[in-house]
Write a structure and sequence with these properties.
single chain; seven-stranded mixed β-sheet; five-stranded mixed β-sheet; alpha+beta; 28 strands
């Protein structure tokens, strides 16, 4: 039964399906009889009044069944899409109405204006081109700081000065006092620029409505179906039970597929209005301007240190771009989520954080892999690098001196548990050990020789080390059920959701170890609001921490029932039974009298086999894991780069990660998750950026021709070292969550290496992405071109 053991690097069970072309995504689903195809007409303007829409010519085209605009939406009385994240703001959080179709005004390029329903996708697209919309263009603003400046174009009457909210956390007075008396104060500006999650599968949906029952059905590419269902209930003003949502295989989400989108509302509305199913599949060109973006936070940072380099206080002032509207979880990234990771892996006695959220004429901001933790970790690591440079200190030694658990750190009463300046209790971690290991594996001592060798070839070489602390949980609470199916398999119903992480394998391994059955005996049930009673979906690296914890509770309930039934079948006392390798045996019985779990399950399905007083229902059990506990994945990474000073091209030569995720269910899947996050974090550091024209508000990186994802040739082997020596006690599995860590750690690590390479030329400031042009310009601006 080796394959049943937790910790074994078992190949993913689902990969056979994917690699043989049997994955089933929304676009692969059978098109229902009579299905209409939707095409959304979108605004070509960043900001404009809608003076009129002429759709008669479009409605008259062959195959067109309907053209719906904001006028019909207004008459139908559908509510705006809600912002659902709870943020304790200073004053109100302003969420102006965001309707599924623009009513009188558009506020970003790509905002839906009308939807065409036709017998074929081609007919719908052709008809959309015949719709004439009269716009009155208005001034646009695409930068958050500019939007908050006096005289900026105003997006919403509800939001004077384009201010969405103000968030504050920490002790302002203590922080200012520490800064005022500190021996050193390092101040800098840090930009975490706007990016796009770019999942491989675009969004899509197939909607239908049953007039007899009034129920809706929505097949969609989403990653948190119960949350989307709640948002739909708000928009339609109906009970949640009227909506049945199902997601087949999902080709990546990364946070982008968390919220409700206008197109899902339009598909359901049209299906009810027209009495026919509606199918909408996004084109890749629609996703860039019309889905959601992420990050886009400007931070003003002050780090106070004493004369020996110990951290005294950290002050952070964020200006966060929210886009034209508040997406469901948009404000959370630079408020709740960022503050949870305040200070990273360092013992900082006091701190203060203030965030202003701004409306701009851009696509809305939403969570993206890490959601707030990348922003916070990036700025503290950049501040440490800057402090080391200005104070003439070794950046690694400065980190080591101030790590949580270090005897030298100010206010560090002992290793763990450690209470941060913002009240988070860190239960443990391999902070200093990770730093020691990565410094050795990176051969930091041998770096000067490698730098000299690069210099002989006219190249600049840099080495960067950086750390990260994630606060992993996402939404609290999770649900799971174990059901014994009639075909002999065991269904594991989980409220979390896989978007490519390998849940069909990892959850089966957890169940296999505890139930003593082969992993092949299990079948994952997910992403179905009828088959799964409750769920908070995927996001926040929460699946194994909370979902696995719920599954363990459900398994314990199964085994409790099974012990009672097995004792009845064996005519023994339940306390006399031992359970191992999937079998109950009578302790001390020389004949080995016993019964296996599946036999017990079949027997329990018949009420006649149940002991007196036991309720029918077989061995099936469900459990709710009521937990708001956070885990703390952490690590230290190293990157080595080479820069061509003549062209600005950065080559990533080596990347290492030394991480602590507690106990590992499947080390191979863990490494894969980390490497995927690293690719995204490296992409943000070196290539990816969403750009808008500051005058017109047009998106300039609106396709993969302009939005540069990292390619295989851009990435060296990503070396990941894992250590299970610091498991958490916050869940029965001892796991910490690994899904977001790579994207949190990589940006600061790569940028530290790039700046280290450029340091001999006098370059001290460089924002992501470190594209060839940006690096080349930084070298020239420093006034010291290579060789000059």
């Amino acid at each position: 039964m080796a394959s049943a053991r937790r910790g074994r690097s078992l190949r993913r069970l689902e990969d056979l399906r994917f690699l043989t072309g049997r994955g089933r995504y929304v676009a692969d689903a059978e098109i229902p009889a009579g299905c209409l195809h939707a095409h959304v007409l979108r605004s070509p303007h960043a900001h404009a009044r809608i003076l009129g829409i002429a759709a008669e010519a479009a409605r008259a085209m062959p195959g067109v069944v309907a053209v719906l605009t904001g006028a019909e939406l207004r008459a139908e009385g559908l509510a705006p899409l809600p912002c659902t994240v709870a943020v304790q703001t200073v004053g109100p959080l302003i969420a102006p109405p965001r309707h599924a179709l623009a009513l009188d005004r558009v506020r970003h390029v790509g905002e839906p204006v009308a939807v065409v329903l036709a017998e074929s996708p081609a007919a719908a697209r052709d008809a959309a081109e015949r719709i004439e919309v009269e716009y009155e263009p208005l001034p646009a603003v695409v930068d958050a700081r500019a939007a908050l400046a006096p005289g900026a174009p105003r997006l919403h009457e509800e939001a004077p000065g384009n201010l969405a909210y103000v968030f504050e956390k920490g002790d302002r007075a203590a922080t200012e006092a520490a800064i005022a008396t500190a021996a050193h104060v390092v101040a800098l500006e840090v930009v975490n620029h706007r990016v796009h999650a770019a999942p491989l599968e675009p969004r899509g949906a197939i909607a239908s409505h049953d007039p007899a029952t009034g129920r809706f059905h929505l097949l969609l590419s989403g990653q948190g179906l119960h949350g989307i269902r709640r948002q739909l209930a708000t928009v339609f003003g109906l009970p949640e039970e009227r909506f049945h949502l199902v997601a087949p295989d999902v080709g990546g989400g990364f946070g982008l597929k968390n919220p409700l989108f206008p197109e899902y509302v339009l598909a359901l509305w049209a299906a009810r209005r027209l009495g026919r199913p509606v199918r909408w599949i996004a084109e890749a060109s629609e996703e860039f301007p019309s889905a959601v973006h992420a990050r886009d936070a400007h931070a003003e940072v002050r780090l106070a240190l004493d004369a020996e380099g110990r951290f005294l206080a950290l002050d952070v002032a964020f200006t966060a771009d929210m886009g034209a509207y508040l997406s469901a979880g948009g404000p959370g990234s630079t408020t709740n989520a960022a503050s949870a990771a305040f200070g990273g892996v360092y013992a900082i006695p006091t701190g203060f954080m203030r965030t202003r959220g701004a409306f701009t004429n851009t696509a809305p901001i939403e969570a993206y892999r890490g959601a707030g933790k990348p922003e916070m970790n990036y700025l503290i690591e950049r501040a440490i690098e800057e402090a080391a440079r200005r104070l003439g200190m070794d950046p690694v030694a400065l980190r080591r001196r101030n790590m949580i658990g270090s005897a030298a750190a100010t206010g560090a009463a002992g290793p763990f548990p450690h209470r941060t300046a913002f009240g988070m209790t860190v239960d443990g971690g391999r902070f200093a050990a990770n730093l020691d290991v990565v410094e050795r594996l990176a051969d930091r001592a041998g770096f000067p020789a490698r730098r000299a060798e690069s210099a002989r070839r006219g190249r600049l070489r840099g080495l960067g080390l950086a750390c990260f602390l994630e606060t992993s949980r996402g939404a609290p609470n999770e649900w799971a059920a174990v059901r014994f199916a009639s075909d002999g398999r065991v269904d594991l119903a989980i409220g979390t959701q896989s978007n490519g992480q390998g849940h069909e394998t990892s959850f089966a391994q957890v169940a296999a170890e505890r139930l003593g059955l082969p992993v092949e005996a299990f079948r994952l049930v997910q992403a179905d609001t009828e088959a799964v009673q409750f769920g908070n979906g995927h996001g926040g690296a929460r699946s194994m921490h909370l979902g696995g914890g719920a599954l363990v509770k459900a398994i314990e309930a199964v085994l409790g029932k099974a012990r009672t039934v097995a004792a009845h079948l064996l005519q023994a006392d339940p306390a006399e039974l031992d359970f191992a390798a999937g079998r109950f045996v009578v302790r001390g019985d020389a004949t080995g009298r016993g019964v296996d779990l599946l036999t017990v399950a079949r027997a329990a399905a018949d009420p006649a086999n149940l002991p007196e007083g036991m309720a029918p229902g077989g061995l099936d059990a469900e459990a709710m894991n009521l937990s708001d506990i956070v885990t703390f994945p952490n690590g230290c990474h190293a990157a080595e780069v080479e820069v061509d000073p003549e062209t600005g091209v950065v080559t990533l030569l080596r990347y290492l990660a030394v991480d602590d995720y507690g106990r590992l269910i499947n080390p191979m899947l863990t490494v894969g998750q980390v490497q995927g996050g690293l690719a995204q974090g490296i992409g943000q550091a070196l290539r990816e950026a969403i750009a808008y024209d500051p005058d017109s508000g047009q998106i300039l990186s609106g396709s993969f021709m302009d939005y540069a994802l990292p390619r295989a040739e851009d990435l060296p082997p990503l070396e990941v070292t894992l250590d299970e020596g610091a498991p958490t006690a916050s869940n029965p599995l001892g796991v910490k969550g690994c899904g977001q860590a790579g994207a949190i750690a990589a940006p600061q690590t790569v940028m530290a290496a790039v700046l280290d390479a450029l340091a001999p030329l006098g370059v001290t400031r460089l924002d992501m992405p470190a594209t060839p042009e940006r690096v080349w310009r930084a070298i020239r601006a420093a006034g010291r071109p290579h060789g000059g």
